[in-house]
């Protein structure tokens, strides 16, 4: 039985820089079919993030993974993680502590999504953000090119106060635009978290559900003591570290729901 999360490496991934708004990051691309931008969690493009990326490629998507922090392919370690977090905390591109904030990295993602949508089949693209980048997936959905935003354990702004725990991770103006798209054109978003995750507090999803209503689908995996999935109370990464490739595993089922959501929203009409 699988005892570790699915992992992969950079084999077969094409690297090219993508620049927008005065910022340039290397992006890794692979696959064919409708486009999905997969935005890594801290500390960056780890083997587990690549395991998810290759899973999406195998599911029939063109996947682009921007490398905005960390070293692509490098495994996690406590020191490595802390070093990346320290740099991100002071980065003006991400504004990790700001509330009601329009963040420059969201503009970059919107441009990347438009580029991918212009050269892949389907009506638009998906954006999957995780942990530090979770909320950026929804911020990217102010652009009409983004049809399937997925927020996995969104952790920005860092939830160090009650107000920050309830902050949705994008500006009021951006959220207004997303809510208008949900109301007028059927945009839907998918959010995932573990029940005990303090980094991605329930207040944040409650605020988003209050604005988006049924257009915001929530998957919450039970991590309370004695939970049937065997998750530790500190479980955080729904789509990567906590996944086990075995039948009936709840995080694996959540990842498959993400694949189904992307297919529903991005498959060209027949």
Keywords:
270 residues; 8 strands; 8-stranded mixed beta sheet; 8 helices; alpha/beta; 19% strand
The name of the CATH superfamily reads Alpha/Beta hydrolase fold, catalytic domain
- The dominant shape is globular
Radius of gyration: 17 Å
- Overall pLDDT, averaged? 96
**Overall structural domain count:** 1
Query: Biggest sheet: strands side by side, in what order?
Result: 1-2-4-3-5-6-7-8
Order of secondary-structure elements: EEEHEHHEHEHHEHEH
What is the CATH domain class?
A: Alpha Beta
**Strand content range:** 15-25%
Provide the helix percentage: 25-40%
The beta-strand count equals: 8
Number of helices: 8
SS class: alpha/beta
The CATH topology, please?
A: Rossmann fold
Tell me what the CATH architecture is: 3-Layer(aba) Sandwich
Unreliable stretches covering 5 or more consecutive residues: none
Terminal residue distance? 40 Å
Domain Dienelactone hydrolase: 33-163
Protein name: Dienelactone hydrolase
Organism: Glycomyces lechevalierae
GO molecular function, one term: hydrolase activity
């Amino acid at each position: 039985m699988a005892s570790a999360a699915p992992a992969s490496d950079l084999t077969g991934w094409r690297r090219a820089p993508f620049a927008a708004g005065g910022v340039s990051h290397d992006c890794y691309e692979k696959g064919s079919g409708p486009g999905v931008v997969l935005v890594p969690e801290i500390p960056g493009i780890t083997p587990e993030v690549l395991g998810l990326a290759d899973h999406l490629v195998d599911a029939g998507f063109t996947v682009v993974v921007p490398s905005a922090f960390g070293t692509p392919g490098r495994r996690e370690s406590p020191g490595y993680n802390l070093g990346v977090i320290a740099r991100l905390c002071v980065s003006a591109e991400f504004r990790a502590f700001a509330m009601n904030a329009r963040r420059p990295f969201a503009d970059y993602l919107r441009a990347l999504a438009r580029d991918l949508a212009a050269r892949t089949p389907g009506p638009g693209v998906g954006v999957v953000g995780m942990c530090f980048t979770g909320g950026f997936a929804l911020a990217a959905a102010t652009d009409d090119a983004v049809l399937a935003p997925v927020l996995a354990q969104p952790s920005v702004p860092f939830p160090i106060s009650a107000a920050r725990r309830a902050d949705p991770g994008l500006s009021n103006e951006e959220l207004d635009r997303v809510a208008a798209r949900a109301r007028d054109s059927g945009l839907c978003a998918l959010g995932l978290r573990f029940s005990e995750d303090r980094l991605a507090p329930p207040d944040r999803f409650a605020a988003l559900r209050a604005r988006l209503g049924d257009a915001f689908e929530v998957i919450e995996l039970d991590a309370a003591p004695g939970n049937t999935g065997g998750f530790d109370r500190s479980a955080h990464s729904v789509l990567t570290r906590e996944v086990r490739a075995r039948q009936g595993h709840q995080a694996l089922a959540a990842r498959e729901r993400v694949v189904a959501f992307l297919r529903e929203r991005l498959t060209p009409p027949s």
